[in-house]
Amino acid sequence: MIPMNLKSIGTAPLLFVLAACSQASPTPSGEQGGAGGTTAAGGSGGSVSTGGSGAHAGTGGGNAAGGTTGGSSSGGTGGTVSSGAGGSVAGGTGGSQAAGTGGGATGGSGGVPSGGMGGTGVAGMGMGMGGAVIGSGGASGGSAGRSAGGAGGAGTAGGGGSAGADTGAATVQLTQLHQKIEGFGINDTYASTTLPSSLFDATKDIGLTILRVGMNSSGALQNSNESTDMAMVKKVSGTKIIGSCWSAPGTMKTNGSENDGGHLKPENYNAWATTITNFAKSNGLYAMSAVNEPDFASCGSADPCNGNYATMLYTANELVAFIKVVGPMLQAAGVKVITPEASEWNHLWSNTSAGPDVGGKNSSDPLKCGFPPSNAACDKGEGYDYGHYLAKDATAWAAFDIVGTHEYDSQQAYPWPSDVTAARKEVWQTEMSGVKWWPEQGPSSDIANGVAVAGWIHSALVVGDASAWLYWWYTQTGDNEGLMLGSTDTKRHYTFGNYSKFVRPGYTRVEITGAIPADVLPSAYVGSDGTVVIVAINKGKSDVSVPITIAGGTAPASMTPYVTSASQNLAATTAVPVSNGTFTMALGASTVTTFVGK
User: Fold this and answer.
1) How far apart are CA 525 and CA 444, in angstroms?
2) Burial of 385 (0-12, 13-18, 19+ CB in 10 A)
């Protein structure tokens, strides 16, 4: 996104540079399985196709508690291995990997890993009414859900099953691998000052490894500071630079202006694609975004708009057509292609827009899909839902390399839908901050905001499987668009560092299973050298201790905590010994703590 007045690592640091055209999503509902059957017992229960809401433990799911009446690991009462009593791997009330109240990949309420009586195998997509981004339930009862819940869904406890929370111990599963991490970074497009080199040094600051720069309508860098920042970043080993573009010249657009939306005319696709490719080549970029925030049009200063500046719209059909022109050009030049960089993560996979904001308004919805979506044209590619339409076209899908998105407005990530079966691509969240009209707009610099920003990052990495996460600006006065609040340091600077300083490029996110307190959001990563990193957010107002086991590999002898709190900034505290693979995470109220061991 653009600012309001416009639009608003312990080792040698690694860095990525990207160029961009740009604009802000809900928090996953639980990751822990609920109570109910065990891996050996089946039972009756919820429907797989409707999900519920909630966070963390819920009824259904889990492999640690529940009854035995109704079956075995190969089927429940009346069930089969593939359909679930109280849910299945695909989804449902009573829990599943895809959605539902109390879900989990290993069972439902009174259920079994793959079946019992009850549901079918279709999970809810998008944002289900009454649902959440992922079904409540989760980890040792299964991985967190991968689709939104539906309108409810009841589900009863399985025969012989008893209600209750999953009592399995929290466990870092080193062999259950998710996405590879490419890095963390920042934007400098439109910025009035250059970036400090220390920002890309993990020994002096938070060890960023990616820079995103912007191209103007003439095919040049947006400002002179960017060339200085690029030269600095290129000296840092392992970094990457990426780019994006906000708008074509007005003469190429349907509204005759660089500002306030308008669409690129089809007869200008080739010329604009050539400009983009030349920019990426001449600046030696690692990757280039073909469009920036195709779902956002600047529209004045009244809620929900926040300025007039360069923006350009694409419908899903238009983006598919354009990516088939620009993508092959960039790929032939040796530049990775990013798209669609939607301003709202939900627009990757649906026509549903975010809202309401703090003033009670929904987002601007420039393609007029409606709240909730009701425009039939949007269901035919004339709306958002960019990911689905790109995936439906094999040529378009092959013409780009990275799924780019922003996290504005709804301030959370959305999972890869189960109905998108095209080959998975890396997901990069390339721009996010606190902007006008939306929660965390600021100005603020306190630990509450730091914990909220850490929650954005956690959602992107754990729910959205993002490989990269970038903040918008380094410094800004008057709102939270900068890591710094003018010259004042902020807690979000350091909670961002709880990830960027320790979760280094090349690390892989691994699964955490078992019971986790409701206010704790943990994620875990492993490096090729055996380093284990656990980042734990405690959103609660009370201290909490969480025993956690490291399984599936060699556990470190100890884990060193680095704490960001109201009084500490990435402060190294006393190492915690690991005994028989287990240690206790002591998490202060309203903190973000990174545990590191090798």
Assistant:
1) 30
2) buried
Instruction: Determine phi and psi for 544, rounding to 5 degrees.
Output: -150, 145
Average pLDDT over residues 458-475: 98
Neighbours of 87 (CB within 10 A): 49
**550 torsion bin: left (phi>0), alpha (psi -120 to 50), beta (else):** beta
CA dist., res. 564 & res. 492, Å (int): 9
Pick the closest to residue 589 from 447, 457, 390 (CA basis). Answer: 447
Nearest alpha-carbon partner for 402 in 349, 357, 336: 336
- Give the global pTM: 0.76
**In terms of Cα–Cα distance, which of 476, 492, 343 is closest to 410?**
343
| Under 8 Å between Cβ of 76 and 65 | no
Cβ atoms of 397 and 390 within 8 Å: the answer is: yes
Query: How many Å separate Cα 331 from the centre of its chain?
Result: 25
- Residues paired with residue 16 on neighbouring β-strands, in sequence order: 210, 240
Q: Is the pLDDT of residue 178 over 70?
A: yes
CA pair distance 55, 132, nearest whole angstrom:
8
Q: What H or E segment, with its residue span, contains residue 492? A: helix 491-500
What percent of the chain stands above pLDDT 90? 71
* Banded pLDDT at 168 (limits 50, 70, 90): confident
Q: Where are the beta strands (DSSP E) in 129-198?
A: 170-180, 183-187
Instruction: Give the whole-angstrom CA distance, residue 535 versus residue 457.
Output: 11
CB 567 within 8 A of CB 450: no
* Rounded Cα gap, residues 533 and 202, in angstroms: 15
